[in-house]
Each structure stands twice: as structure tokens, then as C-alpha cells.
Design brief:
The protein is an alpha/beta fold. It has 14 helices and 13 strands.
């Protein structure tokens, strides 16, 4: 019997985030076919179920200074090189910039696959050139990113691999518990999910929500994700909508909260492939999303059908002044009011969302990875 190939998945941490979720999902999807190991730099704040998985913790957490970061790269690379050798790894697949750097610097005894998980990763041209030069495969989470890597860097190793989605699992988890919400009335809940990060553009959403509340006073806003959101709490109070906004913090199972929403809104000005958008769609929640450089357009626009509302990308200039409301925020508010107020319109997009979510299955993701893995020698 032929020995199974050994695959090492490298990720900095496993706290709540898009590529962290994909890493854990990848391990479970590939387990039936290969010996799979997850290597993390630090086990702090693990948010995902890793029971039964082979997890290696380097205990080399984040260092803030430039010197500390450089030292970390060297230490992590040496440690990963030892693990590649010790486990006789065939393929090392890394998730995110810091893991990619360590992967390419930790020796070529295994095939090197690097994952570009966000368009923000593209901002460091030197790093992308390094990956194109030293990796055996560059896995891009959107076709737009693959196209740019191929054209701008002449990298024939670039391929597109959309994130996996287990629709049935998402729906089951949504039923596991009741969401703890501060409101008895659960009508007209708008949800958005993501860590506290300026790239998510949550100030735009809060200001648009304040405009919505003037006409739909029972509207509520649910912000699900890691972070204190202190400045956004202050903004909500200054906008006089504090009683209608709930910051849930990180949830190991966010799906009951997503399922409670009547509408999902994404206001990011940068994305790679927004997992939460697809997850909301799988739960039958219609969506409104910014047309940022990668992700939402590929998800929401088919050749002949729209699966959600796509609005113009929003300004990255952060403005927490409650008195300053921009035209783009007014336009977003109008779209939200239309979706909440028109049941047939909302129902049409609900059905479209469910249909589209089925196109991003974990089956196709697994098949592509296996095809590439079997081709490696």
C-alpha cells in the first residue's frame, strides 16, 4: 500500500479570522487522504475546534519591535525547517503573509505552497516577488488576485482556490443555540461580522444605520467579531443609536447570530474572499456588499444573475465624527431601507443568496487541492 503524503499547514495563530478558519477546514477535508499537521506560531486565543487534529505549537508569539520581528522570522523558519525534516513533509501550505515568509525561508525539502488570502497582501510587492520566485504554487483566494499576480509578476505558478464552505454544517451550527441578544424584538436586525479593523469600514455602517433608524426605528445592528470596539461604541452613542447596536465580541459559533439577521452588510474597502458573506448567504440572509477590489463582485455577480446588492466601494479615510455623513453612507442607508422595507425584493435576494452559496462547496475545494497534491513529485 502506498504511503500517504504528508501535508503541513502553517498558520500564525488560530484566533477568529478568515484564513484561520480555512486552515482548520483544510485539515479536516484533507485528513481522509493524507497525514495532515497544523503548525502554529502561538496557541493563544484558539477560536476553532481542533479536537482530533495534529497541532504543533512553536510557542513563538508576536514581537512588536522591528528587531523582534526579524528575530522571530529566523527562529520560526529554523523551527519549521526542523519539523519539515522530522515529519518528512511532502507539501507545506501556508496561510497569510507571516506564515508564507516562514514557509519560503524554511527550506525546500518539501514543496512550498503559499496562500494569498487578501488583496491587502498585494500591497507588498517585494514579498509577492519573493513568493513567486521561491514557492512551487501561489494559491490565490480570488480570480482577480490570480490575474494580477500572473500579469504583474509574470508568475505562472498562480492559481485560484476559493475558500471552502460546508453549507450543511453552517446551517446545523446555526441551530445549536439561541443567540444572546439584548432586544426582545428581533425584527429588522442587520448583521455584519469581522474583527475590529479599519479595513472593515464599520464607521460607514454605523452612520448609515443611524440614517436608517430615522425611518425604521425598530432596526437593530449586530456587529459580530473580535475586539473591544470602544471607539465604535462611542460613535454609536454620539449618533444616538447606542440602544440599537450590539457588539457581541468573538463567538466560537457565530452562526446563530448571523441567522437571526434579516440582512447582512459588508462595508470593507479591502477583502480577499469574505467568508462571512458566503456564510450569511448560506443561512438565507440577503446581502449588501461594497464592490471592493476582490471578493464581493466574484461572489455576487453571475453572467446573468445578481445574488446580492453590490454598492460602490467606500472611502478608506476613517471618520468618527457623528456630524459628518457622506453621500456614500446615505446611499448605503437607502439600500438598507429598501431591503428591510420591501418583502418581495428581500425574498428574491434571499433565494438568490442560498443558491449562490451552494456554488462554493468544500467538495470542489478538496478536489482541487487533491489534484494539485497528487501532481507534486
Amino acid at each position: 500500500m502506498e504511503e500517504k503524503k504528508k501535508i503541513l499547514l502553517i498558520v500564525p495563530m488560530l484566533h477568529q479570522g478568515g484564513f484561520e478558519r480555512v486552515c482548520v477546514a483544510t485539515a479536516r477535508l484533507l485528513e481522509p487522504y493524507y497525514d495532515v499537521f497544523i503548525l502554529i506560531f502561538d496557541s493563544k486565543d484558539i477560536a476553532y475546534d481542533i479536537k482530533g487534529l495534529n497541532v504543533i505549537d512553536l510557542h513563538l508569539g508576536v514581537r512588536e519591535s522591528k528587531i523582534g520581528k526579524a528575530v522571530n522570522i529566523v527562529k520560526r523558519s529554523r523551527a519549521v525547517r526542523k519539523w519539515k525534516h522530522r515529519l518528512k513533509i511532502d507539501i507545506a501550505y501556508s496561510f497569510g503573509p507571516s506564515a508564507n515568509i516562514v514557509n519560503v525561508f524554511s527550506g525546500r525539502q518539501a514543496k512550498i505552497w503559499v496562500g494569498i488570502r487578501s488583496y491587502m497582501d498585494m500591497e507588498n510587492e517585494g514579498r509577492i516577488r519573493l513568493f513567486c520566485r521561491r514557492a512551487d504554487k501561489v494559491l490565490c483566494c480570488s480570480a482577480r488576485i490570480e490575474e494580477e499576480v500572473r500579469e504583474k509578476y509574470g508568475c505562472s505558478k498562480a492559481v485560484t482556490l476559493y475558500n471552502p464552505l460546508d453549507v450543511a454544517d453552517v446551517r446545523e451550527k446555526a441551530k445549536e443555540e439561541e443567540p444572546l441578544l439584548p432586544w426582545d424584538d428581533r425584527e429588522n436586525i442587520i448583521a455584519s461580522m469581522g474583527r475590529e479593523d479599519d479595513v472593515k469600514g464599520f464607521w460607514h455602517l454605523l452612520k448609515a444605520f443611524a440614517l436608517v433608524r430615522r425611518e425604521i426605528p425598530d432596526a437593530k445592528l449586530l456587529l459580530i467579531g473580535e475586539g473591544g470596539f470602544e471607539e465604535y461604541r462611542v460613535l454609536a452613542e454620539e449618533l444616538q443609536v447606542g440602544d440599537g447596536v450590539s457588539f457581541t465580541g468573538m463567538k466560537r459559533n457565530p452562526f446563530p447570530y448571523l441567522a437571526a439577521a434579516k440582512l447582512y452588510v459588508l462595508t470593507s474597502y479591502h477583502e480577499g474572499f469574505p467568508n462571512a458573506l458566503i456564510e450569511a448567504m448560506a443561512l438565507g440572509v440577503p446581502v449588501i456588499a461594497t464592490d471592493c477590489l476582490t471578493g464581493p463582485r466574484e461572489i455576487l455577480r453571475g453572467e446573468e444573475e445578481a445574488y446580492g446588492i453590490l454598492i460602490a466601494n467606500m472611502s478608506p479615510e476613517k471618520n468618527l465624527q457623528a456630524a459628518v455623513i457622506t453621500e456614500e453612507e446615505r446611499l448605503l442607508a437607502e439600500e438598507i431601507k429598501h431591503m428591510l422595507g420591501e418583502e418581495p425584493y428581500r425574498e428574491a435576494y434571499r433565494r438568490a443568496a442560498v443558491k449562490r452559496a451552494g456554488d462554493f462547496s468544500d467538495v470542489s475545494y478538496t478536489e482541487r487541492l487533491r489534484e494539485w497534491a497528487e501532481a507534486e513529485r
